[in-house]
Amino acid sequence: MNLILQGLNTDRNAIDSIAALAGAERIAPIHANAWRCEGVQHFAEIKAKVDAECLAAQLDGTFIDGARKLSDFKLVAMDMDSTLITIECIDEIADMQGLKPQVAEITEAAMRGEIEFRESLTRRVALLKGLDASALQRVYDERLKLSPGAEKMLAAVQAAGLKTLLVSGGFTYFTDRMKTRLSLDYTHSNVLEIEDGKLTGRVVGGIVDADEKKNTVERVCAELGISPLQAIVMGDGANDLKMMGISGLSVAFRAKPVVRAQADVALNFVGLDGVLTLFA
User: What span, in angstroms and rounded, lies between the C-alpha atoms of 275 and 164?
Assistant: First the structure.
């Protein structure tokens, strides 16, 4: 096993200390702020100590089989809100209605797994009833930003021949634009109902919840003729856990504690391109 340590700024003393804690045989630099600790011990007790030390040093630490390569994978599946992009679109739409605190509170509870996603989405969308649909474009133009490292990560995986899937409990208005902007292969999300230029407070068709996200990953894998174990799946909220659970590598990006605890990889400090460093 290797232990990959990376951060926005790294202190070599902290690297050496954590590597020693993991019983590393060698330490090799990957780039200025990333190190590969080779031949480490991987036991639950050691991992818990390493995780605590990494958090204190603002480092992301990942135990990974040294033989794994990016070419082992054929698909990268991503959540959108707070994963591929920095915002929760529905919270920002609600802000146009003066309802961001109320909607954001429901969003947070759902991402922590305290409210079932389907119920939370129905409640949040209902609060948007009557809002002019032009608010969606304003959110896209004024507030939507890609997460750090997103473009670099996507460029690398696409160059390596991996397919890309954006599967979101958010809305097609935004996933469609992300698909075009980032040359993604597949997208799947919810459709907001609009009548006479205004949001009705309803979603058209089925809701993309945790089960539908998992089903979508399975469906795309079947279409590609691959196993879900050949997919890297990234997310941040409780509704991402089911699709992350069937993947070959699950990545929690700046995620809720319940998600970090169950993921293979937790990136709390570096950008999405930190995934690439695991295979360097």
Answer: 14
Question: Could you read off the pLDDT of 148-195 as tens digits, one per residue?
Answer: 999 999 999 999 999 999 999 999 999 999 999 999 999 999 999 999
User: Which tokens belong to 40?
Assistant: 């480490």
Mean pLDDT of 85-90: 96
Q: Which residues lie across from 6 on neighbouring strands?
A: 34, 60
Domains of the chain and CATH, by start = 1-67 (3.30.70.260), 70-280 (3.40.50.1000)
- Cα–Cα distance, 234 to 178 (Å, whole number): 16
The total of other beta-carbon atoms located within 10 Å of residue 93's CB is 30
Q: Select which of 11, 60, 79, 211 is catalytic.
A: 79
Amino acid at 6: Q
Instruction: State the burial class of residue 270 (Cβ atoms within 10 Å of its Cβ: 0-12, 13-18, 19+).
Output: buried
SS3 87: coil
CA distances in angstroms from 178 to 12, 106, 128, 131, 181, listed in the order given:
38, 25, 22, 23, 5
Residue of 11, 16, 72, 81 marked active site: 81
240 is catalytic: no
pLDDT score of 95: 94
pLDDT at res. 42? 85
The verdict on whether 81 is a catalytic residue reads: yes
Specify the pTM.
0.95
What is the DSSP code (8-state) at residue 72?
G
Return the axis-axis angle of helices 44-57 and 12-21, rounded to nearest 10°.
170
